[in-house]
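Priority: medium. Attachment 1 of 2:
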């Protein structure tokens, strides 16, 4: 078991980045608003996004380079588009995850410290961890967080099912025109934005530096463990929302602090008041891990992209991009702090609309001469990729034509 745990790392970092707003906020809200009616959407989007996420570690370990290096081989224009898309979305994404984390901190530790101050404190703590602890600390921390979160969520779901009154309907529904925006937002970050495949390739290369026996097979196993965890926990949070909030007459608030209180009280309704601290800490560590991994990954990706496009024009570019991201996040937060729901919707919709780009580029790269033949996709994975691209393009076009 110790050997297996040693080999696992980037997959759990992927899970740590994924299991955040998409699960705590969007999956819970899906259950609260539609009961179990959107299980089809959760499973479908996980299936169709699977190959494009998997191509990240597959390409990285098969070639010894990141997806960003591969993008450059496909043409500098691809890398420029990635740079623009990332710069346009990374501040909103970071703000969305940090504001939920700050709201949870305020709920758990009391409102003696304002949400604004909590935001700054959390960003500073994450900054110190990343600059001092670096990748190896992230790797170890995530194992603990994901195991804790998985156990606490499964226990919560068990008690929620035990306390449920009356039969549970599994009838699947398709949202009407007014609700279609939520469906796209829900699928946008379920289990995560597709550009996390790039982050995963960066983490996989870092893992290989410290774990020389981290082969393609072990990296795919590592990825599958993390991916399965995100699906199980997505279903878990949807179940909690469906059992506790569906048809209760309660609605989730758009304000971070109020939403966080509602979220934690939802758990305590299922488990009892004794669980408040345990659940609060589990929810906080979930969002803290997402804040931490996104604060590491976006600057890491931007530093690599800058280097590939312009050479080493910025010394210590990783540090430079972290400071840029923290500054932008604080500015956006100060202007939109009461609009948590709007921020999350903007970030998740943008992620869904950019998904076809990442899907097509990842598929082109993994199927090209730049990937060793033995590690190119099987026929089944080719077919799933084609279906996934059609699915992502189809829903994006549908959404844009119904605005």
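Attachment 2 of 2:
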């Amino acid at each position: 078991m110790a050997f297996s745990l040693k080999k696992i790392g980037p997959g759990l970092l992927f899970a740590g980045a994924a299991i955040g707003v998409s699960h705590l906020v969007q999956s819970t809200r899906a259950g609260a608003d539609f009961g179990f009616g959107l299980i089809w959407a959760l499973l479908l989007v996980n299936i169709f996004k699977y190959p494009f996420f998997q191509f990240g570690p597959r390409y990285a370990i098969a070639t010894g380079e990141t997806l960003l290096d591969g993008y450059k081989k496909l043409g500098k224009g691809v890398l420029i588009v990635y740079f623009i898309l990332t710069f346009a979305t990374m501040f909103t994404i970071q703000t969305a995850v940090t504001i939920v984390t700050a709201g949870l901190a305020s709920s758990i530790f009391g409102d003696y410290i304002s949400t604004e101050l909590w935001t700054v404190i959390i960003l500073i703590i994450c900054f110190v961890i990343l600059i001092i602890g670096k990748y190896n600390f992230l790797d170890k921390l995530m194992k603990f967080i994901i195991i804790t979160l998985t156990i606490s969520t499964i226990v919560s779901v068990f008690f929620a099912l035990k306390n449920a009154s009356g039969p549970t309907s599994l009838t699947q529904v398709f949202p009407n025109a007014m609700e279609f925006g939520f469906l796209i937002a829900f699928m946008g970050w379920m289990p995560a934005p597709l550009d996390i495949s790039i982050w995963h390739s960066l983490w996989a290369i870092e893992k290989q530096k410290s774990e020389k026996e981290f082969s393609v097979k072990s990296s795919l196993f590592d990825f599958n463990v993390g991916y399965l965890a995100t699906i199980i926990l997505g279903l878990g949070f949807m179940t909690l929302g469906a059992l506790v909030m569906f048809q209760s007459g309660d609605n989730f608030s758009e304000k971070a602090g109020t939403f966080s209180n509602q979220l934690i009280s939802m758990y305590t309704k299922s488990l009892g008041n004794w669980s408040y601290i345990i659940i609060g800490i589990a929810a906080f560590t979930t969002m803290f891990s997402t804040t931490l991994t996104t604060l590491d990954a976006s600057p890491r990706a931007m530093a690599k992209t800058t280097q590939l496009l312009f050479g080493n024009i910025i010394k210590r570019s990783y540090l430079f991009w972290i400071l840029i991201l923290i500054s932008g996040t604080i500015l956006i937060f100060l202007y939109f702090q009461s609009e948590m729901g709007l921020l999350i919707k903007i970030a998740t919709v943008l992620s869904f609309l950019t998904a076809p780009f990442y899907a097509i580029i990842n598929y082109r790269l993994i199927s090209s001469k730049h990937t060793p033949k033995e590690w190119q996709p099987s026929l089944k994975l080719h077919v799933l990729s084609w279906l996934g691209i059609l699915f992502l393009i189809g829903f994006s076009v549908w959404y844009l034509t119904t605005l």
